[in-house]
Amino acid sequence: MEKTASINRRHFLAAGSLVGASLAFGQGVKRDYSKGGAPVRYPDPDIVVLDDAFKKYKIGNTPIQRLGTGYLWAEGPAWNGVGNYLLWSDIPNDRQMRFLADDGHISVMRKPAGYSNGNTFDYQGRQIACEHGNRRVARYEYDGKTTVLADKFGGKQLNAPNDAVVHPEDGAIWFTDPGYGSLLDYEGFKDAANSPQPTQKEAVYRIDARGGAITKVTDEPFKPNGLCFSPDYKKLYVAETGASHYEKAPRNIWVFDVIDGKKLGPAKEFASMSLDMGKEKKAGFADGIRADVDGNIWASAGWVGDGYDGVHVFSPEGKRIGQILLPEICSNVCFGGPRRNRLFMTASQSLYAVYVETRGAHIS
What we know:
Helices cover 3% and strands 41% of the residues. The protein is mainly β. The strands form eight sheets. It has a five-stranded antiparallel beta sheet with strand order 1-27-26-25-24. Strands 17, 18, 19, 20 and 21 form a five-stranded antiparallel beta sheet that branches. It has a four-stranded antiparallel beta sheet with strand order 2-30-29-28, with no helix packed on it. The longest helix is centred in the N-terminal third of the chain and has 6 residues, at 9-14.
């Protein structure tokens, strides 16, 4: 009798990974994300394997889901493990939104919100927000008060803080200040005097948790945007979006060695955002970035179009190994859920999520 190959469930669920690759670059079937729309056939063709290293992270029987829509520019997702909710910013509408994982309910959490962009939580569970409108990094206290952590450096006002992360060993807060929120009334408050922007050189800063001292750790990137640490906190990754205003700026992600937990070595290119899309190479921007426990970097990507916009996944060596394709420009990502194995993606007007076979390296 003819023998048939045995297929275990894990191999079955991973099957079809390369099918997604053949549907990349906008060749897949257009899907209906609206409520009541037809479900996608497994495995989800918009979770694309570009390298065998990504196969183990793709789950065959899980879909990309749109959890909510109707925002103007969604940014800054952060997961609160105690409350079992996701927080994010809807910048032009000057509000912060909340998704309750228990029942999927979405509501306004804070309005006004200082036209906040990036959010995170410290190791005491307090929310840290980068407020475009107030051009500051703020912490919201348990009693409802707001503590200003940073709004000036060197005697001059910050441009418009964008994203922040917290170091677990000393509680220091690292943040970027590219200045986008001070360039448009749409996302903050444009300088009424039309004084030159940025106010000072765009940079990455560190706020000491004990004394509150602010130090500039690097101003090498043209416009440092999203940032994250490696799982062991020995490296800092920074997304570069300077090409939005500077002709010479690369479209890439930088990596720095962290020295003594407080300083950075020189910038090195970790990964280029240029992607070979068949007939030509195209390069958009990485914005928000997060690391998983294996050291892979999950980067939001956009401003190119179908087949590019969504999430690009890079190995610890900087090789692009996978994509999650979205019908909108993706601004930020974070890992959440009780197991930190659900990737949340803020994408222009919507919030998306997908389960992956890895976990986020950090709490938010």
